[in-house]
Amino acid sequence: MEEELIVKQDCEPGPHGFYPDNRPLNLYINHGVINLDKPRGPTSHAVTQKIRRILKFSGKVGHSGTLVTS
Fold this sequence. Notes:
Largest sheet: none
Order of helices and strands: HH
Distance between the termini: 69 Å
Shape: elongated
């Protein structure tokens, strides 16, 4: 049995999606996650709102993580 190796030299992205280097910034913001090590002091809500203002994002945002009371 003879094996044949086919190498595709030319391709086009499909109608759904982008190459990572060509993806618009708003898609990263709308469908992404920001990992943040919040300092002691400001509330999680305050930090979330500050990030929302910095990114000029009007969509849904939230926070999660461990709440340490001590």
